[in-house]
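In pairs, describe these two lines:
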Amino acid sequence: MGHYDLPASRAEIREIQSVRKREVFERAKTASWYKGKLDHINPDKLDDPEEWQKIPILDKDTLRQWSHEEFMTQICVAPKDQIAEYWRSGGSTGKPVFYPRTFEDVTQGIISWGRNYECIGIYPGDLCHISFPIGIHPAGQIWARSAHHAGIGMNWVGAGNSVPSRIQLDLIQSLKPTVLVSMPGFAIHLANLAENEGIDLTKSSIRKIVCSAESLSASKREKLTRMWGAEIYDVFGMSEAGLMGAESEAHDGIHIWSDMYFVEVVDPDTGKQLPEGEAGTFCVTPLVTSNATPFLRWNSGDVVRYFEHGKSKNIHGELFPIIQHAHRTTGFFKLKGVNINHTDFEDFVFANPDITDFQGVMSTAQSGIEQFTVRIEIRRGSDAKAVTDSFKIDITNYTQIRIVRIKIRLVKSIYVF
């Protein structure tokens, strides 16, 4: 089988990029939205960063202005008889967009998802348990389909709304998969449920957990490692492109399949490419999954750093650059004049091993005063009062905001600032 359709060298990747960038550029010129926006760009100089960066950046806010019919008219360039399926956009805010995918797009998608197995160290003989939704969002169904091509066993379980969490634990115990493929939040949920039922998942068959679709912070990674006794890997993808890369054994970033996806880290104000190692906005031009929707310089909204080489010593480290998520987005809220970053706050809470899960809710009281409510779930066997008292002090020190009211409810505590 060889190395899952990998190019031979970085030199070959540069040649592939040059050809495919030109193909996508020419295809984009036939889309209604791009008409007149690319005429000033020399197609023979697309490998010149200055020329390439003349291309306007595209983001989801632009697409959400349109109805589905308008989107198909403005962006889609494939005839109906070439459309194999639609991929739903990810994210939890705004109107979802449904992207048409040709049969060739789907084939390339299966390749892009399938590359993660060897990169992570999943081989024939392994059995995966996938807990992603199996439906119009591509992550679950394309990932599951890619396993067959890679010779990997795959249990098509699906999300907790279709297969209840308790049954998922039963499947893990009875079928003994070696790999869990899941959103990190759901993997934590399964571990909490197992702990409450006296099931020690560190003794289960799961040796690796592959996460995607949510931010995998250092605290989440440590928590998953502790609760499952497994090695945690992150992968990165989006419906606009496909699965673009995965971690390898060094766990120092995501190796990007640069022959399939041309990526840039740019200044959010100027759109110009930033030097290696500087944090900026992630833009991607899908080179092989753009037969229906030729996106150029798609702004994903992620803040990342780009490095030509990571620390992994395998074939993926030799061939592919890495990105590191800076875990910086507009995801913060202001409380009594204090900015609280979502990811930083999550790291703070999950650093406490006696707290298994939490929920934070920002609301405005009838008086007009904003308040932040945090519900924490105490680890089974821990002293709820001691954990609550300690957390009260820790969270006050962390936020520098005085707690004005505290409620304690059995295993959950509610704090209002």
Residues 405-417 have pLDDT under 50 and may be disordered. The radius of gyration is 23 Å. Residues 1-328 form a domain with the Rossmann fold fold (CATH 3.40.50.12780). The chain has twelve helices and 20 strands.
